[in-house]
Amino acid sequence: MPLFERLKQRIIDGEMNGLNADLDEAMQEKAPLQIVNEDLLGGMKVVGDLFGSGQMQLPFVLQSAEVMKTAVAHLEPHMEKDDSGGKGKLLLATVKGDVHDIGKNLVDIIVSNNGYDVVNIGIKQPINTIIEEAEKHKVDAIGMSGLLVKSTVIMKDNLEEMNSRGIADKYPVMLGGAALTRTYVENQLDEVFEGDVRYAKDAFEGLTLMDRIMS
Ligand code: B1M
């Protein structure tokens, strides 16, 4: 099987053996981020479709996710970076009840490789902790990720909680994750939130939004 097809298939099959060697060979031909976007994410999409249609069981999805994470960790040191920091600070969290973190961690990599400081507080984070950590680290913006449909409701609740605590104006909010749509964020959530809430469809749009927030 050709190299790039094999990489995608590794994600689908959850096959770790020989992964790093394939990635090293792939980096001779493509930039690391290109490999993530063009090959590895394609594999994750197939996994999502197979799982969604009942053709793949959860433990296998978990294996695929582990291969994805290992691959990204191997590629990350080879990515172009401006790690000077100091352009601004972003807090990142996956919202309460949600364990999905591959997308959030990609946002962390892209944003922190482009001159920002990122405080990544992990998964299943309630709004209390998100706000406490934002205050503690004096961040410039809050980013929330969530992939479950119920996470979109949690995000709305979180924005309402920020309104009621009077801190909506203090922290621009960036939202992302597969269950969200631009229309939901820009129409419905924007109506609810008394501050600035924006949607990022991927990690690169997350970086663009951070640039806008800090300009
Ligand atoms: Co789950 N899962 N999962 N899962 N999982 C989905 C989300 C699902 C759509 C699969 C499906 O049915 N087709 C479905 C949700 C359905 C729904 O809510 N209606 C689902 C389900 C049902 C579940 C469980 C409930 C299953 C169960 O237990 N029966 C369970 C949930 C547990 C929980 O959260 N409480 C569960 C568990 C898991 C695993 C643990 C096995 C694993 C996660 C491992 C991990 O993340 N560490 C997993 C996986 C891997 C997936 C799929 C297959 C892939 C997700 C992924 O990593 N994609 C997923 C299918 C899908 O999404 N279509 C699925 C790659 C990643 C790069 O994309 O995170 O969307 P994504 O990030 C993108 C953008 O969205 C954006 O940037 C990234 C690209 O650059 N982005 C942001 C994301 N966050 C951002 C934040 C930003 C900006 C951009 O700013 C702050």
Pick out its properties:
Methionine synthase; 55% helix; globular; binds CO-5-methoxybenzimidazolylcobamide; 9 helices
Protein model, in words:
A 5-stranded parallel β-sheet has the order 2-1-3-4-5, sandwiched between helices. It starts with a helix and ends with a helix. Helices cover 55% and strands 10% of the residues. The model has no long low-confidence stretch (mean pLDDT 96). With 215 residues, the chain is an alpha/beta fold. CO-5-methoxybenzimidazolylcobamide (B1M) binds next to α3, α4, α5, β3 and β4.
- pLDDT < 50 stretches: none
Number of strands: 5
Oligomer: single chain
Distance between the termini: 47 Å
Number of helices: 9
Helix/strand/pairing class, anyone? Answer: alpha/beta
Helix content: 55-70%
Beta fraction: 5-15%
Q: What is the N-to-C order of secondary-structure elements (H for helix, E for strand)?
A: HHHHEHEHEHEHEH
Radius of gyration: 18 Å
List the helices and strands and how they pair.
Blueprint: H1 3-13, H2 19-26, H3 32-52, H4 58-75, E1 89-94, H5 102-112, E2 117-120, H6 127-137, E3 141-145, H7 149-164, E4 173-176, H8 182-192, E5 197-199, H9 203-214
Parallel strand pairs: 1-2, 1-3, 3-4, 4-5
Bound molecules: CO-5-methoxybenzimidazolylcobamide.
